[in-house]
Structures are given as structure tokens and as C-alpha cells.
Design brief:
By secondary structure, the chain is of the alpha/beta class. Helix content is about 30%, strand content about 15%. Helix 1 links the parallel strand 1 and strand 2.
């Protein structure tokens, strides 16, 4: 499941990853569903139901170097949100996941790949070069999590 706004530069990295995975449908296991969650916030709650394993890709800012990829699990999200209050305004992915955990069943295995981004305030269909350079690694990491083997180079933009 990819989150982000592809009209806002680097914020669209989750959607760019999803588009690449959709192109690779033949290489993905039959039981894998690739979902573009856009900027749906709490509307994503319905998308979480029934999944055994969930891999999320989203952008993050202020955690590391631009283009760096961070792997989090649900316990990391719980620790991060225990220091802040949930709000119905300006929700973030962590808020959505913690809310989901309290009102419905969530997948037992939940992995988040967060990509450190740069430009998220400018209207642009393009992601920055440093974020673009991380695309292959993100897709490879997702395929590794799925046990799907190597990435076919023809699907990855350079």
C-alpha cells in the first residue's frame, strides 16, 4: 500500500513505488494486492481489513538523509505515537495505524518503508533525484519482504 500525493513532488514516492509494483504484476505472488492509498487518511482504515501482511510505503521528513529508507514495524509506531496525542485534524499515517489498532483487526505483520524526502511543498509530478535514486532499493526491499526474489531491471526507472 502506497501513500502520498504524486502532485507534490517527493510526497508522491509511495505512489511511484506502487506504480512500479503494478507494472511487475507477473512477478508478484498471486495473493498480493497492490493498493494506491493516495492521501486518504482515516479512509485507509477500510483498506487494512482482511490482510495477513501489510507493507506500506510513505514519505517521511526529518529522520535522516534525503533518499534514505527507514524500515519500521508497528511497535515502532506505537512508541512514536505514545509521545503525542491523536488528532482528527492533520492526521498522519502513525495516527491512522494506531487508531486502526484500537477499532479493528490489523494485519499481524505490518511493515512500513519510509523514504526521507526533500521537496513536498512545490507542485510537481517529479520526485527529486536523491529520492528517485532510492526507488530501486525500495522495490527490492518490498520484493524481499514478499519472498519474490530479484527485481527485473526493465521495471525500474533510473
Amino acid at each position: 500500500m502506497g501513500f502520498g500525493n504524486p502532485l507534490m513532488g517527493d510526497d508522491g514516492i509511495g505512489i511511484h513505488v506502487i506504480e512500479h509494483l503494478k507494472q511487475m504484476h507477473a512477478e508478484l505472488p498471486d495473493n498480493v494486492e497492490v493498493i494506491d492509498a493516495g492521501v486518504c487518511g482515516f479512509d485507509a482504515l477500510g483498506l487494512l481489513e482482511g490482510a495477513e501482511k501489510l507493507i506500506i510505503v510513505d514519505s517521511v521528513k526529518g529522520v535522516g538523509d534525503i533518499g534514505s529508507i527507514h524500515r519500521f514495524v508497528m511497535d515502532d509506531i506505537r512508541k512514536a505515537t505514545s509521545r503525542c496525542h491523536l488528532s482528527l485534524h492533520g492526521t498522519c499515517l502513525a495516527d491512522v495505524l494506531c487508531m486502526a489498532e484500537h477499532i479493528q483487526e490489523i494485519p499481524e505483520e505490518l511493515i512500513i518503508f519510509a523514504v526521507e524526502v526533500d521537496r513536498t511543498d512545490d507542485i510537481s509530478l517529479c520526485i527529486s533525484d536523491r529520492v528517485q535514486a532510492s526507488l530501486n532499493e525500495i522495490v527490492t526491499s518490498i520484493l524481499d519482504e514478499l519472498g519474490s526474489g530479484a527485481v527485473t531491471e526493465q521495471y525500474i526507472q533510473k
